[in-house]
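Hey L., structure's done. Input below.
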Amino acid sequence: MSLEALQQVGVDVREEENWELDSKVVELAGLGIWMASLSGFIFANNWLGPWPSFMSHIPERIFFTGHMLGGMLFGGGIIMTTALEWLCVKNRNPTVLMFYFDKVPLLDMALVLPGLTLAMFSGTGLTITRYGGLGIAPAHIPVVFYILTAFAAWWGATDLATQGKAMRAIDEWVATNGEGEIPKIVQDRFWSNITSCFFVIALYAAMVLKPGTLPQYTPHLAPFF
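Output:
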């Protein structure tokens, strides 16, 4: 390979790395704005009372429907992407793997984050219509937020932090014509994704096994809520 060709390869690699860095900065900035906005909404409702005031006039069934739809998108999105990623890795098709890891952030933006936003907004509305406000809701409501906080920390440390590294590893693997084992970081993501699914199960368990929902089956759980 000529010197000019080597220099061009170096330029292309640097441009790709800069593009990935810029994309990650934009993604993290967007996530930061989203988290700050949603957290502000939750904190305002927890300490200042129902906010904004019009939420007190929305029928409970509207919030309930939104909560179910949001939970479906959020939990279903996480479980679906876990299954899709596992199938793509098992398939060992370089084109399929590159397509998947290129589109993972789009799946998060299209399903998981909107679903979580809708679920939390409508869930807060349910605490207003059912209990008078988030700050005076029963103890099982804070449990849901504790689980969500733990999930967010886990997702940020494992899934979000490894998306870019996994994509670069796949690029390097594809450059070898898909020879050898699939990169370890790609295979290890399966277990972090499975753990995320268990967080989803824990969230649904906390919402379903709340006081008065299934008293004949779960009286022994009452002291924990």
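DSSP finds five helices and no strands in the chain. Residues 3-47 form the longest helix (45 residues).

-- N.
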